[in-house]
Amino acid sequence: MLRSLTWAWKGLLPPVAPLSMRSTSSEANRRGKLDNKVAVITGSTKGIGFAIARRLAQDGAHVVVSSRKQQNVDQAVAALQGEGLSVTGTVCHVGKPEDRERLVATTLESYGGVDFLVCVPAINPIVGSTTDCSEQIWDKILNVNVKAPGLLLSQLLPHMEKRGQSSVVLVSSVAAYTPVAKLGVYNVSKTALLGLTKTLAVELAPKNIRVNCLVPGLIKTDFSKVLTEDPVISETSLEFFGVQRLGEPEDCAGIVSFLCSPDASYITGECIVVAGHSPHL
Ligand code: NAP
């Protein structure tokens, strides 16, 4: 005892805090640059959205995860709560108005307000050119990928305005800058999100709400499996990329946390590429 006190005195052992001062693991996880903020993240039970949910919660935010399938929501919430993070969840198909309303209600009931909205999901139901696409598919893609983020933001806006310094992050794709043949309307929807980012940034700046956009390249997720698990495409991609690896969902998470944080308080209307290379703009 005397010996360890002597070492501690000399600064060679970290002093041990009394039990009453020691934090539980969940308290320790909740110290960060997003402390006590509330984040709503759509399409966040897998892939890029899940990595963003985990990172924002690790940085101190209370996070509401959501996606179309209850089972995926339950799994994501259980996994993140198991890490001591402050997370709840609800089913929300972003294209359904009643689901968006439930997401807003769940957020307000759980945490009393909202500071951040991150709109992640996108669909691409067909492989083909824009001219091959039926009106029904045009509507489906534009509804989910472009209209839904705008409409959900409208529903959350009155609550975000009350918070003082809110932040919105949309998720586009490098296909917005360099269209991929056969992804016709999906390419168009992702380019539209760059425009939505710029317009919302101008509209909402006077309300002190910032709007930015994450622009991922090829990231290893279920969505991109058809590309990343094809050896020819993977190899060609590496030749094309500057950084010699495919992206991981976690590569996209830190930048979203930064964009929500006070460190980015003078940044709005920006579209930030996370792709291991710089696409042709
Ligand atoms: P992912 O791994 O397939 O995950 C998609 C997530 O969104 C899942 O949680 C899914 O859960 C949910 N989801 C799908 N449709 C939804 C809807 N209509 N409403 C609400 N939730 C929905 O996809 P990802 O690769 O992470 O892609 C995320 C975003 O990044 C997309 O906008 C995509 O365009 C963009 N992106 C991805 C890449 C890439 O290489 N992965 C590249 C560029 C851009 P449920 O099935 O339970 O709904």
Shape: globular
State the separation between the terminal residues, measured CA to CA. 65 Å
Shape-level CATH architecture: 3-Layer(aba) Sandwich
Major β-sheet profile: 7 strands, parallel
Number of helices: 10
Percentage of residues in helical conformation: 40-55%
Poorly predicted spans? 1-30
How many domain modules?
A: 1
Cross-sheet strand order for the largest sheet: 3-2-1-4-5-6-7
Radius of gyration: 21 Å
The CATH C-level class name: Alpha Beta
Going by CATH, the homologous superfamily would be NAD(P)-binding Rossmann-like Domain
Describe it for me?
By secondary structure, the chain is of the alpha/beta class. The protein has one domain: Rossmann fold. Helices cover about 45% and strands about 15% of the residues. It is built from 10 helices and 7 strands. Helix 3 (about 45-60) packs across helix 10 (about 255-260), helix 5 (about 95-110) packs parallel to helix 6 and helix 6 packs parallel to helix 7 (about 185-205). The longest helix is centred in the middle third of the chain and has 27 residues, at about 135-160. The termini are far apart. Residues about 1-30 have low confidence and may be disordered. NADP nicotinamide-adenine-dinucleotide phosphate binds near residues 47, 68, 218 and 224.
